[in-house]
Amino acid sequence: MTSLGDKGEGHRETTALLGNEDEGSVQTQTKVLNQGSWTQVSCPCCVSEQVEPLVLIQLSDNIQPVTKRWLISLIEVSERDGGAALLAHPGEDECGDVIVVSAPRCTLLRATEDLGLCKKYHNGDMVAFSYNDRDNFSNVDDMQEFLTLAERQYIVKYELDFLRAQKGQKIPGVPESQGVLKARENICQKLEKAGVIKDIFPLHDKQRLTDLCRNWYSGKQIWGQPLDSIQAYFGGTVGFYFSFLDFYTWALVPPAILGLVLTFLLPRGGSGAGVVKEQAGEGVMEGVVEVDDSPSVSGHMVQAVFSMLWSTLVMEFWKRRSSSLSHRWGLLHLAERFAEPRPGFHGTLGINPVTGRLEPLFPEWQRQLRVGLVSVPLVGFFLGMVVLGMTGFYHGEALAQGFHQDSGSLFSGALLYLPSVAHIVYTNMLGNVYRTVAMQLTEWENHREESSFQNHHTTKVLLFTFFNYFAVLFHIAFYKQDLPLLRKRLASLLIVTQLVNQCTEVVVPFIVDRFFSAPQKKQQEDDPDVDKLRAQRSLPPFPGLFAEYIELLVQFGYLSLFSCVYPLTAVLLLLNNVTEIRADAYKICKLFRKPFSAPVSNIGVWQTAFEVLGFVSVMSNCWLLLLSPRVREFCLEGGISGRNIILFAILIEHVLILVKMILAFMIPDEPDWVRIKREQIEFHSMQALGQQKL
């Protein structure tokens, strides 16, 4: 390999300068690597004396040198010749099991245009980047300033993912049974299946990470996060998650205050009121049979209406917040790479009618058949298993209570807990099986675009999650119509879930990091011969944000669907989320490898999921209000028949749905200034395209 520093003085004059702020960080990253071992570049503007390690490719322990040299040659050659046009470093030596990858300036700039990223123009506006117009963009000669670390690392992964064999060939040093590449086959995916590549992950920058941790969770501040720094280091996916978590936590303050007022300041119904039963077959409310300490009629109504309006306003204002962040981070004009299918896509080789390229083709009608005839019935089967488990739980609970009433022994008392334990074990096991099945089903559906794959997978998991978490609560509320039991169940869920979450997300990670990882950290810091890049491989891979969004969605459901029954819901959620922010920040910074983060302009399909829950909350709160003992007693005293109460509840439900729709229509999804900026970006892009045609 030839050193980049040996290219001559003419090339040195065109070397891209590093920003003063990031130069020390890059030198810290590069000092563990021999700069003379990086592959060379042919473009003069891409020559640099300091090459920044961005991504590490972990190879198998018994990798053959000829296989490693072949892979490095593919990484370094131009895209025109079937390569990735990146820079590669062999690590310690050519026989080692790692390859460190970086990216030259021209590759970064071309990928910036492909991804549709917006960057600051010479006049200060954010404009969709154009490679042909690159000289008019600010900081275009300084990749440390022009692109964030997360963007540079994602571009490397982006180029590696779309490495495809130009023709059929055999992989050197790999047995023929595993090492035959077909034309247009994804190379990295093939090498992973053959066991040549174990993992590909971005590298932490120690100095940047230390600064981020100090400003993020190591201080004493409770509110506020360095969102711009989070997005710059971890990328848009992580940035938008923590932005939403921060926004949602602040949004919990009003319902928390209202819940405290309704619980402790508003007069209760007193001991004289009770649950009013409905006479079977007549629809007339009569009788007072048991004491109830729920809020008064006015408290129920205020909490129910507030929850419905709150769920609408939160998501509408989040859309505006999201669009503002999207513009600020240059993500307002993202373009999905249509020219290349996602790495897991497969099919019969043919000419794509849109791109005119030779690539795998898969008929859309065949994909729809797979979804309709296999995926949908299987998802329905698992939803039925959730209902079956819930039915079994109630049946087992009834049997245990009957046995305890007959015997009254200590043993029978202990058996009362058996149905709940069995139901928890059942739902957890079913959830684990379903997540595996959902991923395999989505892979089998064979979606071409990554966004389509993620949307179908997320939809499957969301349906199951909704049933798994809320089916029992809906059953108690609308079938058993036992609001005191619903209140107790909801309070138990909130308290127990938060205790478990705090233990698993705060206490356990802290103990592991402090007592089990401390000796290894000390050894790495004290021993200068330890390879800093290799040490990052010992960290577990980041599990993603799927479980974190599920947790927030379940919280949102508890609050918007059932908080009129238990007004303190928002208080408990607020206390949980204040620590959740720091716990999630600590985990992603200290306990896992740095994840790749694709540029995104919002939280994606999760936003739709939250909006659907907000819509369902209208129906849920209206009927919970109807079932409230206070409301029933109030209607009974007013001489209102049961039939009229139901008709009135339906009328109120439709009115509130109309109010939600009007609010959603009246509040624009993006501020006027963002809309103007977006239209300016689109206009500038059309002008740039017209100039290219000329």
UniProtKB/TrEMBL annotation:
Gene Ontology molecular function terms on file: chloride channel activity
Residue ranges of coiled coil: none
Transmembrane segments: 247-266, 371-394, 414-434, 461-479, 552-575, 596-626, 646-667
Short name of one Pfam family: Anoctamin
Domain (Anoctamin transmembrane) ranges: 230-680
Principal subcellular localization: membrane
The protein's name: Anoctamin
Organism this protein belongs to: Salvelinus namaycush
Gene: LOC120053421
